[in-house]
Design goal:
This protein has 119 residues and is of the alpha+beta class. It is 46% helix and 24% strand. It is built from 2 helices and 5 strands, in the order H-H-E-E-E-E-E. Strands 1-2-3-4-5 form a 5-stranded antiparallel beta sheet, with helices on one face. Helix 1 packs antiparallel against helix 2. The protein is elongated. It starts with 6 loop residues before the first helix and ends with a strand. The mean pLDDT is 96.
Length: 119
């Protein structure tokens, strides 16, 4: 069974999640740019293979931290996280997506993103 979160718990964790997500978004862009430049131009001003590997490792560190805490990573472009919870005895996912500054959505587990409702 996965870890269950309360709304208050996720809201307490969110400032750290936002900081990590902001870092991940920047690294995601750097990685895309380095990869494109290396393929199109043969080199990137942002770095070579060593820098690409370092960015990939840092992204993996953040993702591993999140999964280690029990978060469900649904996507990284955009960053989409679900937090398993129960509301009125029903299995739900507290849902946060890149660009949101607070936790305000949930959906029934079996419905996914399309079933999002305001808390």
């Amino acid at each position: 069974m996965s870890r269950l979160f309360s709304v208050d718990e996720v809201r307490e964790l969110l400032p750290g999640v936002l900081a990590q997500a902001e870092a991940l978004v920047g690294m995601r862009a750097d990685l895309a740019e380095m990869t494109f430049d290396r393929e199109a131009l043969g080199a990137s001003p942002l770095g070579g293979l060593a820098e690409i590997k370092a960015v990939e490792a840092r992204i993996q560190e953040i993702l591993s931290d999140w999964t280690g805490q029990g978060f469900e990573i649904k996507g990284i472009a955009p960053v989409l996280l679900d937090f398993p919870a129960l509301i009125d005895g029903v299995s739900v996912r507290l849902c946060w997506i890149e660009g949101e500054n607070e936790l305000v959505w949930y959906h029934r587990t079996e419905l996914g993103f399309a079933g999002r409702r305001l808390l």
